[in-house]
Amino acid sequence: MNESEKDLISIVIPVYNVEKYLQKCVESVKNQTYKNIEIILVNDGSTDKCTEICEKLKKEDGRIKVIHKKNGGLSDARNVGINNASGNYISFIDSDDYVEKNYISLLYDTLVSYNADMSIASHMVIYEKNHIDKSTGLEFKENAENILEKMLYDDGIDLSAWGKLYKKQLFDEVRFPKGRLFEDSATTYKLIDKSEIIAVYSKPVYNYIIRRNSISNEEFSERKLDLIVSTKEMTDYIRNKYPNLSKACDRRLMYAYLSTLTQLSKSNIRNKKIENELMGYIKVHRKEILKDKKAPKRDKIGIISTMMGFQCFKYVWRIYSKITGRS
Q: How far apart are CA 321 and CA 327, in angstroms?
């Protein structure tokens, strides 16, 4: 083992009914240039062939640990992985995604070189017909407040649990909320806030796959409102601790409403009650976001389209998705 690889890194991979993707995901982790890793596969009550695949993979590589449990959702699976992690550091990978060979080495080297508590890389968003590189190529370190501001404005920092490396002690008092969708929105900001130094190296070493049958693309239900609930909790916390970030919090909460409205616009069934609630909030708060120079153009396009009603928003989003290759 190289001196630079003395730290054991635990990689937590929740597994649920992803038999088509699991092998590729785990192979990408097994092939990491950083070798001192343990791979924790948390089989969250899969009903397909994932159980057999997990056991097969375990036999092939002694670094793989398999935990079989009753289905409890993504948050519960991640929490079980954290509880069983032996490493000094933890990273998360979703089982239908895959990573580049230098995923762990880039995160680890960045964290160590800046003596940070947490490091952040970037990712490639892979749609069926298009790839979008979300990286900026920038490398830097910041304190929690500045990283939170970038995250709130979606300025090169996202809320995903994956694509990051954490000192294990950050999870001493933090866990993912069981039973809630958009669990990252309820968790990542807490981990950032617990970190004195966050190091960023914005290279696309994580491949985030957009599937038509993923949670974010499934038929709309009231559970999708969890994004607003988690975002409200997050922005209330940040606004209270960092008053200078109030405008950034306003933007992030507006994004949660726009994102939920987008999910509703994809539904085959129209829900007027929720539609009116979402549109009502956007109408009341849209002026302050339109005046914010740091707010992304995509937000402003969405807000302006709502001025002509829900159907106009729905049409504009469909055109925007085709132009950007997000459909």
A: 5
Question: Along the 327 residues of the chain, how does pLDDT read in single tens digits?
Answer: 565 568 999 999 999 999 999 999 999 999 999 999 999 999 999 999 999 999 999 999 999 999 999 999 999 999 999 999 999 999 999 999 999 999 999 999 999 999 999 999 999 999 887 889 999 999 999 999 999 999 999 999 999 999 999 999 999 999 999 988 899 999 999 999 999 999 999 999 999 998 765 554 456 788 899 999 999 999 999 999 999 999 999 999 999 999 999 999 988 878 899 999 999 999 999 999 999 999 999 999 999 999 999 999 999 988 877 777 665
Domain check: are 204 and 226 in the same one?
Answer: no
The H or E element containing residue 146 is helix 144-152
3-state secondary structure at position 198: strand
CA–CA separation, 227 and 253 (whole Å): 9
- The Cα–Cα gap between 253 and 289 comes to 10
Same domain, 40 and 181: yes
Beta-strand pair 139-142/89-92: unpaired
User: Looking at the structure, do residues 132 and 240 belong to the same domain, yes or no?
Assistant: no
Decide which of 180, 209, 238 is a domain's last residue.
209
Q: Are residues 200 and 225 in the same domain?
A: no
Q: What's the rounded Cα separation, in Å, for the pair 18 and 199? A: 32
Q: What is the pTM of this model?
A: 0.93
Q: Which domain holds residue 294?
A: 219-324
Q: Is residue 214 a part of any domain in this protein?
A: no
**Same domain, yes or no, for 238 and 284?**
yes
